[in-house]
Amino acid sequence: MKVGVFRRIGSYLIDAIPVFLIVTTLLSWFIGDIIKNNIENYTEYQVLYAEALEGYNTTSEQNRTDLDNNIISEDEFNELQISLQTTFLEDNQEYIEVVVYQYWTTVLLYIIISFNVIYFVYMLLLKGNTYGRKFMHIELVGHVKWYTLLLREIIWKHLFWAFTFSLGIFIDILLIGLSSKKKALRDILTQTQIANEGTQYPF
Does residue 113 contact residue 87 with C-beta atoms inside 8 Å? Predict the structure, then answer.
């Protein structure tokens, strides 16, 4: 009996969630501070941006109060909000680029790289037969080498999902769910297969 979609998803989540928690914990402990310290003027701009945002929220709340009290009409409220937003973005563009875009772009890059590195090392140490797969009583069989693990677990899984904007996840689900061999692209391209524990391969 070949392994279906739900057991494969379950094993992946069991493996991926702890790795993601490690990455985000490191981010909150000290990686976030390292990123901030390496962005020029971040601390100064963060303070100025916070002050500007507080002023924006105060004015926005006042406009909402005036609308609720029938001091201004719905159209006037919408005009005031559009003008407020436009002015805020124009006046604080430099702060937004540093505090929001530059910081969070770096954080996202850190998460992607560190998650994949830790996940790949985890796969290497257990030769593809991770705790998630053991818990679901399945195993990785076939041509299991370091380079096939790199291809199937990073390139043809995570990068494939990322570059297809998550469409690759649905492609994998359809291939596993509807095909008789229950194989995703990564299984076919790396000559590996997820099988029930103790199943003789090839089958």
Answer: no
Q: Are 189 and 128 in contact (CB under 8 A)?
A: no
CA quadruple 101, 102, 104, 105: dihedral sign: positive
Whether residue 184 contacts residue 128, with contact meaning beta carbons closer than 8 Å, is answered with: no
What DSSP character marks residue 2? Answer: B
pTM of the model: 0.87
Nearest-angstrom CA–CA distance, 30 and 71: 49
What is the chain's pLDDT, residue by residue, as a tens digit (203 residues)? 578 899 999 999 999 999 999 999 999 999 999 999 999 999 999 999 999 999 999 999 999 999 999 999 999 999 999 999 999 999 999 999 999 999 999 999 999 999 999 999 999 999 999 999 999 999 999 999 999 999 999 999 999 999 999 999 999 999 998 888 889 999 999 999 999 998 766 66
CA 27 from centroid of its chain's CA atoms:
14
Strand blocks (E) in the chain = 138-142, 192-196
Q: Which residues contact 13 (CB under 8 A, 6 or more apart)?
A: 132
